[in-house]
């Protein structure tokens, strides 16, 4: 899943080395935290959050194979 997120996000940003994905796992869910450079935040979120929503949709659809709920959080 981390590779999927990195594959989607890295071509969108200018500072590819600053893209970091971390995972927090609980008994019922997986939380992926995506961190990018401040200058690239607008590119990842997109106009009215469209790109962020599309990325989340792909992650959720792929994560439905697991028994755990999958979430993606974009942090600064």
Summarize the structure.
The protein is α+β, with helices and mostly antiparallel strands. The protein is 36% helix and 26% strand. It has one domain: K homology (KH) domain (GMP Synthetase, Chain A, domain 3).
Q: What are the key terms here?
A:
GMP Synthetase, Chain A, domain 3, single chain, KH_sf_prok-type, cytoplasm, alpha+beta, RNA-binding protein KhpA, 76 residues, KH_dom-like_a/b, KhpA
What can you see in these coordinates?
The chain is an alpha+beta fold. It has helices at 2-9, 41-45, 50-63, and strands at residues 20-25, 29-35, 69-75. Strands 1-2-3 form a 3-stranded mixed sheet. A hairpin with a 3-residue loop joins strand 1 and strand 2 (29-35). The relative contact order is 0.24.
SSE map:
Elements (H helix, E strand, L loop, with lengths): L1 H8 L10 E6 L3 E7 L5 H5 L4 H14 L5 E7 L1
Parallel strand pairs: 2-3
Antiparallel strand pairs: 1-2
Protein name: RNA-binding protein KhpA
Subunit structure: Forms a complex with KhpB.
Subcellular location: Cytoplasm
Number of strands: 3
Q: What is the radius of gyration computed over CA atoms, rounded to a whole number of angstroms? A: 12 Å
Number of folding domains?
1
- Supply the number of helical segments: 3
Strand order of the largest sheet: 1-2-3
Strand fraction equals: 25-35%
Pattern of helices and strands = HEEHHE
- CATH-wise, what's the superfamily? K homology (KH) domain
* Mean pLDDT score: 92
């Amino acid at each position: 899943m981390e590779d999927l997120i990195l594959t989607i996000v890295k071509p969108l940003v200018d500072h590819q080395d600053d893209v970091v994905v971390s995972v927090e796992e609980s008994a019922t869910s997986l939380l992926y935290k995506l961190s990018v450079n401040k200058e690239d935040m607008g590119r990842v979120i997109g106009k009215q959050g469209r790109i962020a929503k599309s990325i989340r949709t792909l992650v959720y659809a792929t994560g439905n194979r697991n028994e755990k709920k999958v979430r993606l959080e974009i942090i600064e």
